[in-house]
Amino acid sequence: MRKIRIYDTTLRDGAQAEDVSFSVEDKLRILSKLDEFGIHYIEGGWPGANPRDAEFFNQAKKITLRHSRLTAFGSTHRASLTAGRDPGIKELLAAKTDVVTIFGKTWDFHVREALRVSKQANLDLIYNTIAYLKKRVPEVFFDAEHFFDGYRANPEYARKTLEAAASAGADCLVLCDTNGGTMPGDIGGIVHDMARSFDIAVGIHAHNDSECAVANSLIAVEKGASHVQGTINGLGERCGNANLISVIPGLKLKMKYSCVTDAKLKKIKDVSRYVSEIANLRHFKRQPYVGDSAFAHKGGIHVSAILRHPETYEHIRPERVGNYQRVLVSDLSGKSNIVRKIRDFKLKIDPDSPRVTEVVKDLKRLENQGFQFEGAEASLELLIKKTFGLHRKFFDLIGFRVIVEKRREGEEPLSEATIMIRTPQGVEHTAADGHGPVNALDRALRKALEKFYPQLRDVSLIDYKVRVLTAGKGTDTNVRVLVESGDGRHKWGTVGVSENIIEASWQALVDSIEYKLLRG
Fold this sequence. Notes:
Blueprint: E1 5-8, H1 24-37, E2 41-45, H2 51-60, E3 69-75, H3 87-94, E4 99-105, H4 108-115, H5 119-134, E5 139-145, H6 147-153, H7 155-167, E6 172-177, H8 184-197, E7 201-206, H9 213-222, E8 227-230, H10 244-254, H11 262-265, H12 268-278, E9 296-297, H13 300-308, E10 326-327, H14 335-344, H15 355-369, H16 377-387, E11 396-405, E12 414-423, E13 426-434, H17 437-449, E14 460-468, E15 479-486, E16 491-498, H18 501-519
Parallel strand pairs: 1-2, 1-8, 2-3, 3-4, 4-5, 5-6, 6-7, 7-8, 9-10
Antiparallel strand pairs: 11-12, 12-13, 14-15, 15-16
Helix pairs in contact: 1-2, 1-12, 5-7, 6-7, 8-9, 9-10, 16-18, 17-18
């Protein structure tokens, strides 16, 4: 079975999508998730292009990756400088990654109009950059930008750019459909020619402007590519990139190529939803393989048939991609997912207990209100523990008040929270200010509890996200708050939902603290 290498560029190409803005912490969390999933290469960004990417690579050096190789992305050196003197090349080396991906021009139109150098000078830029890096970095990939457009316009010159990269020592020639307008038939023919022409790996990087990125990636592999680039959920500039959430099961289940293990493939839905939540985007319920509707059946002939033989209306068994069959008319789904989570959380609970059904009902009720537990599994674990009597309350709220005051134009508002809680040791009444109302409330709650539970001093609020759940109702709508917390050893997510953003935040903050206290 031919092995296909998966190269994820969510943190770089995906971050260029409209409505997406990853913080450094977001990128580090996604990096760890993709490594856990088993992605071969994770492109972290363009070192030196912006402070955020520079900080990411500094922080990423502290993370030990078990399955993936972190990759830095950059361009060929400037025409006015040598590779060794180019600041961009120096930044790539300073990132200290084992892999560097360099993009270069392969379309003579771009060489003439964008770079404004001769065609030979462009070939020299490609060769010199890769040769310089290859002496200093274990693996160097060449992203052949606009290759398919360039090949149609001037096939001889496009081929020469690949020859320059290959002769300089490139480990993989990645053919890029940068404008996303090439059809699968053309992709297949050109990839086939290039794969036969070079004795090093050939890859594919497809954009989705013609809704063909996944098809183009799959046919490229069929015709000889062994390296596929894409993003989680197809995030990317304009219409996005090839969606790895569809590409990977397509390669594994349909085409029988080796790319991830069967066990890892079962986590692909979790990966998809995790990235959506971190990106603060609604998960597409009709997304193939992993969407809520991907294996949902509603009434009539379909339901009666799939209850006897799922294959009648399902192209794969949903469990293979971490999804599950849903029968909407009779509401039979959900229990298997809770049982799996009970095992994941290592809870000593009988999976055949009737209380599992209670959890399913509670989960459906909460999800109907707007709760989502992807990226907030600490709240899900607490819900299960409460149902099974494994939870204990560490404090009760008597009341809180949050004040936001703006004293004059041009000055930052002042936020203060006052809180009264009851603990086993008595009533505690305290106050704190903060950078915004939620931060003030968080500080006040910790101030009230830390004398009784000193382990909370290790806990910090890492990330905070708010999503409006119902469009068209203005400020009169439910919001979902997702809080990410950590104690230096572990990280966990919690969630709250309310029409009042402070109340939703309170729910998430309380879950975060209770989760920590239950863990010890």
